[in-house]
Design goal:
This protein has about 325 residues and is α/β, with parallel strands linked by helices. About 45% of the residues lie in helices and about 15% in strands. The longest helix has 20 residues. It is elongated. It starts with 5 loop residues before the first strand and ends with a helix.
Length: about 325
């Protein structure tokens, strides 16, 4: 079979500076391609030579050309080359994406104080677009798909551009249950561990002192879900994380908090519901009831959108196949 014949595939580039960025320091990016696709890559001046079985060399060539094209279009190619871009492209290949499809659009992003947050998968790009277009968005998906991180990025973008005056970030502390009272400290110290992922995302997008000042001033509020009751949240961007652990009553309460000039993103993983077996998840109930409502978007990220370590995507795939 021709696909099992060894072959040398040559690629020539007209920008040596960009080619150096593509290769990475000590050819680290080329090494990642070699390891993932089982090929060997040598550089000679402005040429790369890929050796391996025919099918793999062609695939490696497609990866390199896609990588070069995206670096060329990026306003900061150095940062892109040093970042996770090559892992993202290789993950697309592992998930069976056709690299001849258009690249992710460079005009889809969230602007934060520290950096611009770009979608890293086609699913994340569509998720971003949905958050721009709808007042309420349900972002569903397994761990590692960026559903919460991307929502916080969009919220910070809205705050930075003064489209809203306040961020409200919340999640149920259902894991604590009745044991919450046995934890040391005041209420804030008791619930902060459950809100830590929200803090981490903010600190990645904003200077620490700015986050702290806005927490004190109330421009950013991070609180357990119970604190939402009885309020009207106007001129706010609201994120409810881990919403699979809300009850139907809690979800209705949260959804009806939305006030004038506000947006809400509700995220959750329907495969990790920690409620009692006889308790219907408010997230399951809401997405079933509201899927035809104007102004509400429901988006499902999948294992193909996992942006943590590549092995996380393989783990999720194995679990999903077992469950099927």
């Amino acid at each position: 079979m021709t696909s099992r014949e060894e072959k040398v595939f040559r690629l020539t580039f007209d920008d040596n500076d960009l080619l150096l960025l593509l290769c990475g320091q000590y050819n680290v990016n080329l090494a990642k391609i070699e390891k993932t696709l089982n090929v060997s890559i040598d550089s000679f001046g402005n040429e790369l030579r890929i050796k391996g079985f025919s099918e793999q060399t062609k695939l490696a060539g497609d990866v390199i050309q896609r990588f070069f094209k995206q670096l060329s279009a990026d306003p900061d190619p150095q940062a892109a080359a040093d970042g996770p871009l090559i892992e993202d492209i290789l993950r697309l290949v592992e998930n069976g994406y056709d690299l001849s499809k258009p690249s992710l659009k460079s005009d889809v992003f969230a602007a934060t104080w520290r950096k611009k947050i770009f979608p890293r998968t086609y699913g994340q790009e569509d998720y971003f677009k949905m958050m721009r277009q709808n007042e309420v968005v349900f972002g569903l998906g397994p761990a590692g798909t960026g559903k919460t991180y991307m929502a916080v990025a969009m919220a910070v973008d809205h705050l930075k551009s003064k489209k809203v005056e306040k961020l409200v970030l919340s999640r149920p502390a259902v894991e604590a249950g009745e044991r919450l009272g046995f934890l040391p400290g005041d209420m804030k110290e008791k619930v902060d561990p459950y809100l830590r992922p929200l803090y981490d995302a903010l600190y990645d997008m904003m200077p620490v002192d700015k986050v702290e000042r806005m927490l004190v001033s109330g421009e950013i509020e991070i609180a357990p879900l119970a604190f939402m009751r009885g309020r009207t949240l106007s001129n706010s961007f609201v994120i409810i994380d881990e919403a699979q652990n809300t009850t139907s009553v809690q979800m209705k309460m949260v959804l009806t908090r939305l006030g004038h000039n506000s947006r809400m993103v509700i995220t959750g993983d329907l495969s990790q519901i920690d409620l009692p077996p006889n308790q219907l998840s408010g997230l399951v109930d809401a997405t079933a009831r509201l899927k035809q409502i104007k102004g509400i978007g429901i988006f499902c990220l999948s294992g193909e959108d996992v942006v943590r370590h590549a092995v996380v995507g393989r783990i999720l795939k194995a679990y999903n196949e077992e469950e099927k």
